[in-house]
Each structure stands twice: as structure tokens, then as C-alpha cells.
Amino acid sequence: MHPHIPFMIAVDGPAGAGKGTLAKHLAEVYDFAYLDTGLLYRAIAYEMLQNGYDLADVQLAEKIAGSLDPATFKESALRDEAVGGAASFISAYPGVRAALLKFQRHFAQHPPFFKKGAVLDGRDIGTVILPEAQAKIFVTADLEIRAKRRFKEMHERGIESRYEAIFEEMQSRDLRDEVRKISQLKPAEDALIIDTSHLNIEEVFLCAQDFVSEKLKTSL
Ligand code: DC
């Protein structure tokens, strides 16, 4: 690893594919800093919903994006499905993405606590935020499987939900994330693609670790 350039791992993919679990695991294994970039978009959406603001108010969304303080995030509230849907909506605004780009790049280039690297998970980390990332992974899975996983997770957390509603919400969120004009959800050309539909978590971890360890060796 170059002494002054942090090692960057980009983990992208649709909701429920397991990218958060994988990204957190990689950060732990390599002792790198971790940033869940979805939380940034969720925090903007949450503030708009809480205050009854119109989600279509682009200028307001941009203003909130410019003044986010991750230290104040209440993660459990941000995890709500409705917040995720609204986040997907406001994430299509170029001004919002531009405001968050700076924050994300700064985090990766100057990882907190003097860590030697950073893991960022999101939708456009490998393609737009950190095109120079040394390791890029795109995690995906069939929509039905992702919806089942999310349903199980909600049930385990004691949150009542309907499978059909989760399926439909995920389907429309995928579509919004894929068709928006900027930073569309798609793998970077040099990304390792892992389809987690029929893999267990250990298999996903191993596959990603093999890839990252190889990249780390060559960046020494
Ligand atoms: O990963 P998540 O479910 O927490 O993300 C919520 C929404 O935020 C998602 O539907 C799209 C948007 N998002 C984005 O556009 N770019 C990112 N890097 C992360 C999230």
C-alpha cells in the first residue's frame, strides 16, 4: 500500500443485496474506516419527511445536503422503508449528489482515526465517487430474494411489514435508481460482480476477501 494514499474499497449494489453487511465486514477485516453513503441520502429524506416538506423541493433538498452532520444521525429512524423510498427520490437531484460527493471523497481520502483505508458502500461509489478505488465490488441478487431477506430482517427487528409491499417498494426503488439520468446504479467496468442470490454470507465474504487481498498485494 502506498504510504500516503489510502486504500479504497467501493461496494455498490441495489437494496437488500447484502452490500452493507459485506462492506462492514471488509472494514473490520482490514481495519479500514467505513461509510454507509445511503445514510447520507436517507438523512436528507428524513429531515424533509419529518418537517412535512415537499420532496419535490429541489432547492430545499440541496440546502439540507450541504449542512448534514453525520454525528447527529439516528440510524434506526433512517432505516425505515419509507425513508429509503424518499431517499431514492431526492437522490436523483444533481445538486444533492454534488453536495454529497465532496463529503464522500473527503472521507475516503482522509479516513478518520488515521486508518490506512476506507470502505464506502452505495450505488455510484466505484463509478462516480471513487473511480480511482483500488478494489471495486458490485453486489447483487434477484429481486425476490432481496425482498425476502428484507422481510425476514424486519420481522426479526419486530417491525410489522407485508412481503408484497416490500417487494413492490424495492422494485420501484431499483427502477428509480437505474433510470435516473446521473449516477445510475450499474457496476464499474473493473468491478468484481458477486451475485449473492445463492451464496451464504461466508461464501460472499471469502469471495470478496480473495479479491481485495489480491488488490492490496499489488498496490504495495
Ligand atoms: O443503500 P440505501 O438503501 O440506504 O440507499 C437509500 C437510497 O439512497 C437509494 O434508493 C438510492 C440512494 N443512494 C444513492 O443514490 N447513492 C448512494 N451512493 C447511496 C444511496
Automatic annotation (TrEMBL):
<keyword id="KW-0067">ATP-binding</keyword>
<dbReference type="InterPro" id="IPR011994">
    <property type="entry name" value="Cytidylate_kinase_dom"/>
</dbReference>
<comment type="similarity">
    <text>Belongs to the cytidylate kinase family. Type 1 subfamily.</text>
</comment>
<dbReference type="InterPro" id="IPR003136">
    <property type="entry name" value="Cytidylate_kin"/>
</dbReference>
<keyword id="KW-0963">Cytoplasm</keyword>
<dbReference type="Pfam" id="PF02224">
    <property type="entry name" value="Cytidylate_kin"/>
</dbReference>
<keyword id="KW-0808">Transferase</keyword>
<feature type="binding site">
    <location>
        <begin position="13"/>
        <end position="21"/>
    </location>
    <ligand>
        <name>ATP</name>
    </ligand>
</feature>
<protein>
    <recommendedName>
        <fullName>Cytidylate kinase</fullName>
        <ecNumber>2.7.4.25</ecNumber>
    </recommendedName>
</protein>
<dbReference type="GO" id="GO:0016301">
    <property type="term" value="F:kinase activity"/>
</dbReference>
<keyword id="KW-0418">Kinase</keyword>
<dbReference type="InterPro" id="IPR027417">
    <property type="entry name" value="P-loop_NTPase"/>
</dbReference>
<feature type="domain" description="Cytidylate kinase">
    <location>
        <begin position="9"/>
        <end position="205"/>
    </location>
</feature>
<keyword id="KW-0547">Nucleotide-binding</keyword>
